[in-house]
Amino acid sequence: MAKGLKIGVLLDEPTVIPGFDYTFYEVKPSSGRINQPLPQAWNVVNCFADNTITQTKPELVATSKGERAVRGTPKRFLWDWICPSRTEYRDYCLKTIQDVARHNDIAGIRLDSVCFPREGYCDCSICRDLSAKSGMEFLEWRANQIESFVRKVRESITCGLGLTLEPDPCYGKERFGLDLERVEEYFDFISTPLYMDYSIVYWLDIIANCFRRKISKPYFIELYAGHPRAPTKYLMSALAVASGYADCIVLSTYEAQIARSLQEELVREEQATHFFKERECAEMIELLNRWEKIV
Q: How many Å apart are CA 242 and CA 21, to the nearest integer?
């Protein structure tokens, strides 16, 4: 962890909350709707997750062995996935990113869902044809498709750029076509959502440790703090663990009121300072002291 731990918040609402070093706003969530960019915030663009486009252009959905990567299928996708090889959609997504970047008052852009849905995707006719013509092995070809898109994004905008990785520190390339070694250079920071209930933080510690060893850029850890939220004492344990690996901890509350309430709860929690002091989390204590002045 770099000296000077930062704290961030991820919101669905166009609000900048005092006390957070980074605000992340879903300017294009997985629903597919496009919102107005939020000034002073890192605007999040979900790239190949888009529940709207799949309703009007179902032929763009990624496929594997006859199964479509959409919600409600046996593989339990949380959103619908567009095939990353479709030029029409790649151009649409790139234009969306460029339009957001034209707002000079934003802090930057973070790319989410910039990958294939899962292993085996996509085997549509376009992917089969492009893969065969490339002469590459299928896994390498998929990684190349994602890298080429990321490279175009980086070359076409001048603002800061972050990336969210799927929370698999071992097989990102094999499962999602996202090869960290090939794309890391294009980004200013790398983020991973490590969502769980935090009643036990054993796996949080292991996964965060693995990612920290692999990532050379500033590393952001997202902790789930939205509804239904884990008890404050569990979240405190997660904060203590994450602070040992992250350059920035992002609290994914999605709602501004939850974020404000969480600030107040942590400041008023009588055992919080002792808890973090016992675990030598000096920067968490500094954060509480900072929040105490504004809540």
A: 16
d(C-alpha 205, C-alpha 80), whole Å: 30
Measured in residues, the chain has a length of: 295
Q: What per-residue confidence (pLDDT) applies to 75?
A: 81
The total number of structural domains in the chain stands at 1
For 138-163, write each residue's pLDDT tens digit.
Answer: 999 999 999 999 999 999 999 999 99
CA dihedral 203→142→190→53, nearest 10 degrees, is -100
**Structural domain contains residue 116:** yes
**Residue 1 confidence (pLDDT):** 43
Cα separation of 212 and 69, whole Å? 30
Task: Measure CA 269 to chain center.
Answer: 29
What type of residue is 169? Answer: P
Taking the CA atoms of 2, 7, 9 and 14 in sequence, report the sign of the dihedral they define. Answer: negative
| CA distances, 152 to each of 98, 156, 215 (Å) | 11, 6, 22
Phi and psi of 85, rounded to 5°? Answer: -90, -10
Distance CA 270, CA 283 (A): 17
What are the tens digits of pLDDT across the range 23-37? Answer: 999 999 999 999 999
pLDDT greater than 80 at residue 3 = no
Q: What are phi and psi of 277, to 5 degrees?
A: -65, -40
**Region 69-94: what's the mean pLDDT?**
95
| CATH code, domain with 20 | 3.20.20.80
pLDDT at 2: 43
Tokens of 188: 């200013």
Assess if residue 1 is contained within a domain. Answer: no
Q: Quote the domain boundaries for residue 128.
A: 6-255
Q: Is residue 276 part of a domain?
A: no
Q: What is the pLDDT of residue 74?
A: 82
Domain for residue 283, yes or no? Answer: no
